[in-house]
Write a structure and sequence with these properties.
Elements (H helix, E strand, L loop, with lengths): L4 H5 L15 H9 L13 H11 L6 E3 L6 E3 L17 E7 L4 H13 L2 E3 L2 E3 L3 E5 L5 H14 L3 E5 L3 H11 L5 E5 L4 H11 L3 E4 L3 H13 L5 E4 L5 H16 L11 E2 L1 H4 L3 H13 L4 E4 L4 H14 L12 E5 L8 E5 L2 H14 L3 E6 L6 H6 L5 H11 L9 E4 L7 H7 L4 E4 L7 H6 L4
Parallel strand pairs: 3-6, 3-12, 6-7, 7-8, 8-9, 9-10, 11-12, 14-15, 16-17
Antiparallel strand pairs: 1-2, 4-5, 13-15
Helix pairs in contact: 4-5, 5-6, 6-7, 11-12, 15-16
Amino acid sequence: MSPTGIEIYKFLPRTNCGECGVPTCLAFAMSLAGGRAELSSCPYVSEETKLKLEEASAPPVRTVSIGTGIYSFKIGGETVMHRHEKRFEHQSGIALLLSDNLTETEQNAKLTAFNSFQYKRVGAILKPDMLALRADSGSSEKYLKLVKLAAEKCQASLMLICANTTVLDESLKICAERKPLLYAATAENSNEMAELAKKYNCPLVAKAKNLTDLAELTIKLQSLGIKDIVLDSSPASFKQTLADNIAIRRAAILKKFRPLGFPVINFPCLITSDHMKESLFASILTAKYAGILVLSDFRGETLFPLLVARMNLYTDPQRPLATTEGIYEINNPDANSPVMLTCNFSLTYFIVSGEMETSRVPCYLLIKDTEGLSVMTAWAAGKFGADTIGKFVKNSGIAGKVNHRKLIIPGYASMESGGLEEELSGWEIMVGPREAAHIPAYLKQFKP
């Protein structure tokens, strides 16, 4: 039986330092007991304590780290069935399938395209995460060549899909430092795959034909010393994929069934040959409850909506999505460019900055920290008034970037214009449009 929060508390340093993210050690102990925190969050806990409390501190779905560098990502670590209960912790990794049956020209084209798929939205960079390199040709030479090419041309995390453990071993000699995901251990080859995973310290996919066999396989892999496991239940249809994902999550979260307490991998690319259906399936599985999604191809019109849906699902529903406070340069501004001000609610930033870019007028956008609240909500809460805005503008450094002293505030904050003129001596406060769609026309009429 897992220890209670009070029992866990006895093993903690009891300094109430707050470095774990909660104010007291008792609150941290309660979070550990409830599977809502990880013991690694405490920087002062001893190794002996870590061993004693590992079972209690681990979330119901194990956190698995994949890859290194800027494309590294984590999956799992989930503690709830539904996002409104708390939040989803680690967003689904999105992978591109790349076969060694493709010509080198085709492989190069896909790798070049992968590197180009990056989008900036509300201050965040959205991009895919992984290349799934599959051995289809039967030629070890072709597969090793593909692995080497992918490792050289792309920084993405890698998944090595190869049934031949000898070839897989040779592949790992090329890219082991990238900590690739190995695919896949089965009942037949589990011993060999476990040895490779331990030898190169890589996470491993466990694959079985049903959930009962999958649970038995993970038990065996754990007995062989493998902890970082990703589950593949080999579903033959989208309906079965969805059913398996939900059953696995229920078993882990509600039943505390450890053999299925791991993130899952799904292959929408194997369920359908229709690219639009594949993208639709992927979007649903992002919510229910894919750790990794493998797609046959990337296209901007389907990848971007999937990345945005993923971002929205994996934000904290109890916290507004916020943009970093500061000065944002749009369309290469100079000393005579207009200066606009708004709040740091990300949707507001996205809409306002988008209209400013559309205007093609070089300008500065001042983003004031309102704790993620919109203009009217922040004003009502006292976070977007003349006193706080005035202090922000003075400390922002914008005065050193422009020759004029004109500040454009949102139309919905017009009531603060008089107070701002008192707070910002020498500045002219201009009231901008209430609707973002009117910003381009307004900016084109600006005169410094």
